[in-house]
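Exercise: predict the structure of this protein bound to flavin-adenine dinucleotide.
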Amino acid sequence: MPRVDINAPVLDQTSPARDIFLLSVAAPGIAQSAQPGQFCMLDAVEGNNLHDPLLRRPLSIHNVTANGTVEFLYRKTGRGTALLSQLKPGRKLKILGPLGNGFTWDSSKSYILVGGGMGIAPLLFLAGELHKTGNPPVIILGAATESDLVRIDLFQARTMEQGFFTATEDGSLGHHGLVTEVLVSLLDQQAHQTGGADRRGATVVLTCGPFPMMRAVAAICRERGIPCQVSLEAHMACGSGLCLGCAVESEHDAGYIHVCREGPVVDAEKVQW
Ligand SMILES: Cc1cc2nc3c(=O)[nH]c(=O)nc-3n(C[C@H](O)[C@H](O)[C@H](O)COP(=O)(O)OP(=O)(O)OC[C@H]3O[C@@H](n4cnc5c(N)ncnc54)[C@H](O)[C@@H]3O)c2cc1C
Ligand code: FES
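Solution:
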């Protein structure tokens, strides 16, 4: 998978909600080879000649377009993302990517995407690719409150009829509660309609969100024999397998998963939850 390290011009930056930013850059070399679930390391400091990898921040590829635009959707949380959020069109930023392993799928299965908080970011690109294959996914998105659920019209356009669900903790949009509750009721409904066991393996859950949410999603899937892929997060310095700083414990004493190299997307069964 070819990766590039480029100075990409910023095309646009908007803020669809408080502290959430949508950054568009011209990066055809990344757009052409990126797979949903992969990420880039971004350096907001123009002319950073120190080559300080600690200034780079990992962000998932939110979307790509045919004309070579790459979009990132992120929450401003600290120094790096605050610097990124100040970038105006015309400025350049250093981007290394695409990195890591993304989600995998095939046309014989049906997919349920479960996103929580900023974990919705990589799922738009994924939903778009599944939609293109003629196999649109069911999508369940959750957040604390309605305003955190951004770009939902785009998600809706990439799902199947009656295949889009939301959950908010304050009840401001969709189900009042957690995404996992929506997932359980959907899977139970599906099992009831199909007689359960004979459809095992036909549905796959692909998820990204806070660790406790993914742990709950993984447990729900395990109980039902449903394959599940999770997109892990870890603090990253290099993003390319050199510093070994992004280790997450793997299941059955099998050592560590280095999120930037083996992930960020891995089979949920490989993770020590
Ligand atoms: C593969 C991957 C994809 C990601 N995709 C997105 C995305 O699409 N949208 C989004 O909003 N966020 C995403 N994140 C989280 C994002 O990288 C952090 O929010 C960001 O690095 C915070 O940097 P900061 O300097 O603003 O915050 P600070 O808290 O000041 O960061 C200090 C240090 O901690 C690291 N860090 C802090 N929080 C995280 C975190 N949650 N994950 C990894 N490193 C962290 C930073 O990289 C930095 O080295 C992703 C993380 C990973 C690993
Ligand atoms: S971030 Fe350096 S090895 Fe993964």
